[in-house]
Amino acid sequence: MTTAPPPLGASQPNPTLQNAGAVQPGVGHEFVSDATENLGGVVVLRSRVFDASALRRSITRIGHEIVERNYGAHEVVLVGLYSRGVELAQRLASSIQQVEGVLPQLGMLDVAFFRDDIGLRAVSPSGPTEVPDVTDKIVVLVDDVLFTGRTIRAALDAMQDLGRPRAVQLAVLVDRGHRELPIRADYVGKNLPTSLAEDVRVRLGEVDGGEDGVELWGPKEGLA
Amino acid sequence: MTKHLLSVDDLAGRDGIQRILDLSGSFLEVTQRDMPKVPALRAKTIVSLFYEDSTRTRLSFETAAKRLSADTMTFSVGTSSVKKGESLLDTVQTIEAMGIDAIVVRHGASGAPHQVAQWSNASVINAGDGRHEHPTQALLDAFTLRRHRGPSLDGLNMVIVGDIRNSRVARSDIKIFAALGVNLTLVGPPTLMPSSLEGWPVTMTSDLDSALNETDVVYLLRIQQERIGDALFPSLREYTSRWGLTADRANRLKPDALVMHPGPMNRGIEIADEVADSPRSLVTEQVANGVAVRMAVLYDLLGTGGPVV
Asked: What kind of architecture, by CATH, is found in domain B136-282?
């Protein structure tokens, strides 16, 4: 079996730790990060990036930015990437509805079969793709963490098969850097400088159980 | 899954079967899109090596491979060097030399795909070998039934009717449905029943009418005239009157009972026209689901870079 080269200090690859991976809520395992590999050694909480209210305010602000930039929400289709992007897109939609009185159209996108690391690790689908007609609409892709950009590359490919939107924009809760492709986000909840050994953990109640929050974890020995 | 899919046993029991069925559900959704194709197996090459005639299985595998963006090659015995006397080993080595990732094998000899798997570095998928197994048929049958009675099939009653002894479909279906908790009853002429039940958790009878009373699903096997040879039952008319699913028998089934058949059907022999075309019949749905199930099998064997841990 071939696996992707592990990042610094990584141990066994863990198939449950995937960017768009299947997440089982409330199973009691620690909530899942955007990192593709498990972190080896002892990891500790470095900082709390968002608590529940900060996360809610951040989504509200992104919602405002989306309607400001697109002169309303009539032509906007929010397309969430599994698993947490789908939930974030729903929250963004209700937030926009409160501001504009218009509920933007919603879609759900599973990018598993469009990824470029199929064959390097186990890539499993997370849910059905359901996207309304996007022709001449403005698609806003929604994901929790922007890291290498490979998920978004896969999402752009998947979108191409679903129609020809007028524009595609990207909204993420956290941009943690380390891009491997020329991709950037249009709407960012928080720019969070990280090292590759660190791990951004997003928890959304509906997906992961527990209270909403974003935390940065990293190896203990790297604290100095 | 292991590297090859030669038998239902390679699916590693109930959990492994459920996993492939779940994956098939994702691929069914893909096949229903306006653009029913994904790049998942780009640059993989899949060869179908068919030593026996087949319409649906071969087309189904090829469609599945193409919807995954794999390259496909077809090898039909009738137009190949087999006509010149080339052996199976030489044929496999020739195909292998072209650099391929999977071979889909159908062969009249039981065990031929196992043999190919020993000779080849590619993944081998059994698309039916003699009287042995037809695992992707079993998967698509389980998938189809699960869409109507699932997700759990535990405690469902199924009657499998026909030539159990010579049927690779029966052997694979018995394994998969038993693993999924279905209660199985095998029905047919005593001459077409297996000589031993091999420890299968099934009951056997030759009386179809009593078996149909409580059943939720009737699975009819094709009378394989090419494999039976000698007369093992008096006549086809006799077969139909005792073991065929006639309109009359179908009317006595439970209102929601379902009818399945692996195809091709001998209409008027094991299944009456009216039954084959009735709303109870899942026959065309079985064919439609075959593509999604075979996409899942190909993806699982070629797309994960090894067994899923």
From this structure: 3-Layer(aba) Sandwich (3.40)
Spatial distance between the Cα atoms of A224 and B83, rounded to a whole number of angstroms: 74
From-to residues of CATH 3.40.50.1370 in chain B? 8-134+287-302, 136-282
**Which pLDDT tens digit goes with each residue over A29-88?**
344 444 444 555 788 999 999 999 999 999 999 999 999 999 999 999 999 999 999 999
Q: Which of A109, A183, A150 is nearest to A4 (CA)?
A: A150
pLDDT of B143 reads 98
CATH number of the domain where residue A186 is located: 3.40.50.2020
**B309 and A122 in contact by Cβ < 8 A?**
yes
B3 touches chain A (CB under 8 A): no
Q: Confirm if B130 and B108 have CB atoms less than 8 A apart.
A: yes
Q: Above pLDDT 70, what percent of chain B?
A: 96
How many C-beta atoms surround the C-beta of residue B63 within 10 A? 18
Q: How far is CA B45 from CA A169, B76, B95, B295, in A?
A: 36, 17, 11, 14
Amino acid at B26: S
CB interface of B with A, residues 235-274, below 8 Å = none
Residue numbers of B between 68 and 87 with CB closer than 8 Å to A: 68
* CB nearest to B304's CB, from A110, A113, A122: A122
Count of structural domains within chain A: 1
Q: Burial, A63: exposed, middle or buried (Cβ in 10 Å; 0-12, 13-18, 19+)?
A: buried
**What is the pTM (predicted TM-score) of this model?**
0.85
**Cα B179 to Cα B23: distance, rounded to the nearest angstrom:** 18
CB < 8 Å to A119, chain B:
302-305
Mean pLDDT of A192-208: 93
- The reply to whether residue A122 touches residue B35, judged by beta carbons under 8 angstroms, is no
Closest residue on chain A to B22 (Cα): A125
Q: Give the strand pairing for A167-175 and B202-205.
A: unpaired
Query: What is the C-alpha radius of gyration for chain B, rounded to an integer number of angstroms?
Result: 19
Q: Do A114 and B26 touch (CB under 8 A)?
A: no
**Shortest Cα–Cα distance, B300 to chain A (Å):** 9
B8-134+287-302 classified as CATH 2.40.30.20: no
The predicted-structure confidence for B66-117, as pLDDT tens digits, reads as follows 999 999 998 877 777 777 778 899 989 988 898 899 999 999 999 999 999 9
